[in-house]
Every structure is written in C-alpha cells, then in structure tokens.
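Continuing the batch. This is chain 6 of the set; chains 1 through 5 are on the previous pages. Same settings as before, nothing changed between runs. Recording input and output for traceability.
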Amino acid sequence: MSISLKVLLILFAFAMLAACSGDHSKELLLPDEDDSYVSEDETLSSSSHEIDRNCLSSENKNSSSSTKKSSSSRASSSSSIQKAKSSSSKKSSSSTAKSSSSETKKSSSSHFKENWKYLNPDISYGEMTDSRDGQVYKTVEIGEQLWMAENLNYEVDESFCYNDSSEYCAKYGRLYKWAAALGMPDSLCGYRHRCPLPSGDIQGVCPSGWHLPSVDDWQTLFGAIDDEYEREEKCYCDTQKGGLSLKATSGWIIFDFPECEFDMNEEGVCLDEFGVPMLPPGIYDGNGTDSFGFSALPGGVLYMEHPQNPRIYGWEEDANFWTSTEGNDSLYAFNMVIYGIGDDEEGRGPDKAQIVSEQKSMGMSVRCVKD
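Output for chain 6:
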C-alpha cells in the first residue's frame, strides 16, 4: 500500500472519530421545524454527512425525550398549580360570599324588633345601641331634641313586664317604679321618701349619654309639636292636640261604645251604673297620626305591687311616662300621659297629652332623651 493511501485512510479515520466525538457547534445548526440537521460545510461528502446524522441520532433522541418530559412535567405542574389556584380562588370566593351573606343576615335579623312595625314609615329614624345589653333603639329628632322612638326595655330591680309577660316587654318596654326609673333604691326615693335629687339632667335608668326627661324636657316637646302651647312652671299642664300627633298610627284601642244602658242626664250624656258620664255611643279609634315619629303605644301601668298579692295592671288604654321631677310631697312624682279614648269632660280627651302626678309606687314606661 502506498504511503499516500495510508495517509488518506488515517485522515479518514480521524475525520470519523472527530465527527462522532468532537465539537459540532461549528458544523451543525439547531434542529429546524422538520427535525432535520443541516451542515454548514457544503463540501462534506454524503457519506460523511450520513455518519454525522447517525452519531447525533442517539444524543438527539435522549435530549429531545428529556426536553419533552421536562416540558410535559412543567406543563403538568403549571396546570396543577393553575387548577389549585382556581380551586382555591373559587373556594375563597365562595367562602367570602357565604361569610358576607351570613353577616348580612345576622346583622339584619339581630337589628329587627317586633315593635318597629308601629313606627311611622314616612319618618327618617336614627338608631342607638345600649352598650349595657346590646339592645338597639330607634331614635327621632323632634324640634331641638333627640328622643328614643320606643320605650326603654332595660331590666333592673323594681321593673316589670305588663301582665308579667315578656311579650309585652318586647312591645311596650318595661314598667318602672319611679325610684327605679331614677336609678335609685326604693328605700331612698320610693313611696313616702323625699328623694335627694341632684341638679341638672338625671341619667337614671337610661343609657350613657341619655337621661330621664324632666317636666321641663316634656314641655319642650309639647312646644315643638303644638304651636299654641304655652310653657308653664312645675305644672299640671297639657297640650290639647299634641296627644294625637304623638300616638302611633296602630296598636291603640278601637272601642265600640254601646247605646246608653242605664241612664242619660239632662244634656243627653250617657251615664254608667254609678252615674258617671260616658262617651256617646259610637266607634272610637284610639290610634293617632304619629306626625313627628314619637310612635307612643298604650303600654299600660302597674297600679300595685305587693308580695302577698298579685300585681294589678291597668289595661292598655293610655301611655304613661315618668319624669325625673318629684311631686309636692314624698308620695308623688310627675308623669306625662297620652290618653287613648278618654272623656273630654274629665279632661282626658283622646287628642290630649298631659303632665300630671301619680304615686311613686306605680310602674310606668320610660322614654329617654339625649343629653
């Protein structure tokens, strides 16, 4: 074999070794879309080019398989993450919606009170919460005063539910003896005890920032609802037309007075079996106009409370509210009364609200006014 032939064979062997194990970065391009490899050197022989393909085949398959697996793994991982996020987001959104709905319902149900159905729907009411027991009360602005638009229902000693039934407390609030309304013990301010009242507003049983109205506070209310009202000193005073505008539009007695059963006086007025004048026959509606949103209801009264006898309650005819003003002696305190279907001849006209005095031992409603 000639020397030149040997040289060519050696060179050819080195070329094959270089093609299989050498650096291809200068000779080959990355795979194109048809998965073929193209040599940069156009002068290589077809056999040499075929050897390059065969040598790269196993590497490329392994690399491609690894790349596809990695890509598939990333895609699967990404899909799982997105599904997890989507599921978590949906659960979170659902949980938030349920939570929001629950809070709304809870808030709505916890704030609704049965006696609010007697409020005037045409009046814009506010609200206040008694921090002592969490009860919510409607409030209303009348003139320059801010009043509770419902009776107080805060339980203390010497306070009662009408007819000893909690359903009446929910409707009318509680009935308080005068000392209890003041926040004082019966032994200090009760019946037959002169009460050492402080000057100024008296909070009494009312929530913080509110107080038990004095005679002066009630007269301020009378002046705001009745432009003909004339203010008086400590008094037995009344507003002739204020009662109708302070009463709720429902919840009061509608009474059908029968024809005279016993007798009639010279003026044609019916008398009862005791000779007391009665209202003329007819249907009497005790409901009011509630023009100012005060929404008074006939909460009744506790006449007597004795350990050995049942409590005696006056029926649901009038609305009676304590003042913080003591009467002229140790037996009485002033209260404001709104009559239902009382007799005008007795000074108890159905349109009238009046300040009178009653025994401290009686139980009456409380309306608080803002300080």
